[in-house]
Amino acid sequence: MATWPLTAQEVRQPTGPVVLTITGKIQTHNLDRSYLWDLGMLEALPQKSFTTMTPWAKTPIKFSGPLLRDVLRTVQADGQTLQAKALNDYVINIPVQDAQLFDVVVAIKKNDQNIPLRQRGPLFVVYPFDSKKELQTIKYYERSIWQLKSLTVQ
Known about the structure:
By secondary structure, the protein is an alpha+beta fold. It is built from four helices and eleven strands; from the N terminus they run E-E-H-E-E-H-E-E-H-E-E-E-E-H-E. It has helices at residues 39-44, 68-74, 96-101, 138-143; strands spanning 18-24, 35-38, 47-52, 61-66, 81-86, 91-95, 105-107, 109-110, 113-114, 124-126, 148-153. Strands 2-1-11-5-6 form a five-stranded mixed sheet. Strands 3-4-8-9 form a four-stranded antiparallel sheet. The chain has a two-stranded antiparallel ribbon with strand order 7-10.
């Protein structure tokens, strides 16, 4: 994993469809004042997997993807809050501290398969709900935004 600051050679450019745009208080950009991600760029980061129950399914689900903290580290995020926005324009604020305290993933796979749009994909912010009782509350369930399209660091 790259460490701060990134050199120009380490800043990657999307070669496929953009699935995530990060703006706001970030120090690393790959287009104007934004950092655009395609699926391959997210897959190139170290991956984390866990299986957890969710309020949206009757059986445990395995989620895999980069840790949110690694995504934020890549763009050199320098803020306290993430405004997360979904494809349907649903917006939720996620404290940056959550990414440090918990192994929150930007899931790109569900049960080892890419997450289709019709199944809340292609990106899904997921907390490891079964790892700590405190995560099994509406507060954290609401922060688990599916069909994530953008993050604004505030």
